[in-house]
C-alpha cells in the first residue's frame, strides 16, 4: 500500500471518530450548557483573549448556575 493510500485511510478513520461524541463532549452535554460553552470557545478562538469574551462567559456562568451544576460538581465561587 502506498503512503498516500495509508494517509487517506488514517484521515478517513479520524473523520469517522470525530463524528462520535467523546468523553469531553458527553460531559459538556450533561451540563445543559453545551451551546453556551461552544459560543464561549468560539469567541476565544476568534479573539484570542478571554477578556474580550466577558458577555459569553457571563451567559455560560448563568446557564451553569441555572442548571444546578454548582451543586452537582461542588463548585465554589472564588
TrEMBL record:
GO terms for biological process: mitochondrial respiratory chain complex IV assembly. Residues 1-26 are annotated as: Disordered. One of its GO terms (cellular component) is mitochondrial intermembrane space. InterPro entries: Coa4-like (IPR039870). It comes from the Eukaryota. Transmembrane segments: none annotated. This is CHCH domain-containing protein. It comes from Polychaeton citri CBS 116435.
